[in-house]
């Protein structure tokens, strides 16, 4: 019997720098309604909507993570060891 202590990965030490305006799961405003079910789903699934503009994002599921791409705000990837990186296009 392996007494393997499962470390809970719920510890999100690194808080996101910017609080999203919109819910990534349902696309609704964060301030309105209850998004607790959404937040629970977002821990398992990648977001579908951009947190800053509520656009639908193109989500790519990778082995061990995902990348969600907003046509306006660039890509956001789920790398827990790295801060959420927003790729800015050199488009002015
Ligand atoms: Zn929601
Ligand atoms: Zn966006």
Helicity, in percent? under 10%
Query: How much of the sequence is in beta strands?
Result: 15-25%
| Structural class based on helices, strands and sheet pairing | mainly beta
Q: How is the quaternary structure best described?
A: single chain
Unreliable stretches: 7-16
Please compute the radius of gyration using only Cα atoms: 15 Å
Q: Terminal Cα separation, in Å?
A: 60 Å
* Strand order in space, largest sheet: 1-2-3
Task: Sum up the overall morphology in one term.
Answer: flat
Q: How many DSSP helices? A: 1
Biggest sheet architecture: 3 strands, antiparallel
Number of strands: 3
Bound molecules: zinc ion
Task: Give the topology string: H per helix, E per strand.
Answer: HEEE
Mean pLDDT rating: 79
List keywords for this structure.
3 strands; binds zinc ion; 1 helix; mainly beta; single chain; 92 residues
Describe this structure in a few short sentences.
The chain contains one helix and three strands. It has 92 residues and is mainly beta. The chain binds zinc ion (2 copies).
Description:
The chain has one helix and three strands, in the order H-E-E-E. The protein is mainly beta and 92 residues long. Strands 1-2-3 form a three-stranded antiparallel sheet, with no helix packed on it. Strand 1 (58-62) and strand 2 form a beta hairpin. The protein is flat and about 50 Å long. Residues 23, 25-26, 28, 35, 38 line the site of one zinc ion. Residues 50, 52-53, 55, 70, 72-73 line the site of one zinc ion.
